[in-house]
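Service request form, structural biology core

Requester: graduate student, group of Dr. S.
Request type: structure prediction, single chain
Budget code: on file
Notes: please return the result as structure tokens.

Sequence provided:
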Amino acid sequence: KILRASLAQDPEDETARVNFAKFLAQFRSAEAAEQALKEFIVKLPDAYSLQLTLGQIYELTARLDDALQAYTGVAENSPTTTEGIIARVRMGAIFLQQGRKDTGRSTIEAVLKDAGNNVEALLLRANWRVEDRKFDEAIADTRAALSSEPNNRQGMLLLARIYAISNQTPLAKDAYRALLKVDSTNGDASREL
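Core staff response, request fulfilled:
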């Protein structure tokens, strides 16, 4: 009732609508959240946070093609805004997840030209550089990401793993220990150390 009241108070409050949709997704269903978001988007077509939230719900329910469609609208209409960068990164991640390597990689590279310090994009590129056995470049990307977000657990674990697979054992151990200081319950770091 409180969330509905806040929606009625300000018909253009994007944050209230995003929170309402997240509430629906968590306590009702993804379908209810999807329906609400679609209704909000019709009324507020330039509210990109609503479209991003719809894309996130589609990703969580493994509807990747629908997520791509939601993100594409944001990416095309507002490519260099915060929302546009987020949409483009998510699109690149989905392309990579779907095995569309060239499309995913070129999407992420384009993001990094516009937002060179985007942590998620840097970590995605670091992952494929590991895949390509370009460990020094992967380490550089991961360190760049960690310079923006020093306690990023995903980045810290990736750095430790890169050191481990590139036979830099002392650095790998140090990186795993650093992660465990930040997140003492990290099972991956505990097992791999």
